[in-house]
Amino acid sequence: MVLKANFSDFKLECGTDEAGRGCLAGPVTAAAVILREKFTNELLNDSKQLTEVKRNLLKPLIELESLSFGVAHIFQEKIDSINILNASILAMHKSIDQLHHAPEFIIVDGNKFKPYKKIPFETIVKGDGKYMSIAAASILAKTYRDEYMNKIHKEFPMYNWKQNKGYPTKEHREAIKKYGITKYHRKSFRLLAEQLKFDL
């Protein structure tokens, strides 16, 4: 499926998406991207459809060829205090804050968003597989978050975040069972099926 360039008739349309919403550890990361008018790239797609190699190949291209982009992490303490949905939307807002050009219209992956500075917006379910700017944002959110998880993996290698990126894999849950939790774990999440509370 060929991705569409724009949803609205505005020139400065920004796409935004997040990564890491379902993870047990680490931040939720969002990106916002305004692409140049004639931007095309046949590799570009929803980050989940791409290999890590392709995402890492596209990341510098998107940064170089976009009109403007921003990336923001919202960390586990904030996720625990405001919940993951609010944290995801906050991450999107903060990534839009970083754009050098104020967007005239915002398209959002998913079905939940809160108004940003009275700028009109549209939520689009599976938007990262439909619109280029959302796909580009999904790639930046994913690659920046993966870089962060690779970095904290060195501090706590037993959870293998380099591989699972904080998602609830069997291996990650087994490590939590064996070693307990770290400062990077989201305490408001159900970290183990049989255990709702930890002795902290």
From TrEMBL:
Q: Which segments cross the bilayer? A: none
Which of the seven top EC classes does this enzyme belong to?
A: hydrolase
Enzyme Commission designation: 3.1.26.4
- Which reaction is the catalytic activity of this chain? Endonucleolytic cleavage to 5'-phosphomonoester
Main localization, broad class: cytoplasm
Cite the entry's keywords alphabetically.
Cytoplasm, Endonuclease, Hydrolase, Manganese, Metal-binding, Nuclease
The note on the cofactor says: Manganese or magnesium. Binds 1 divalent metal ion per monomer in the absence of substrate. May bind a second metal ion after substrate binding.
What name has this protein been given in UniProt? Answer: Ribonuclease HII
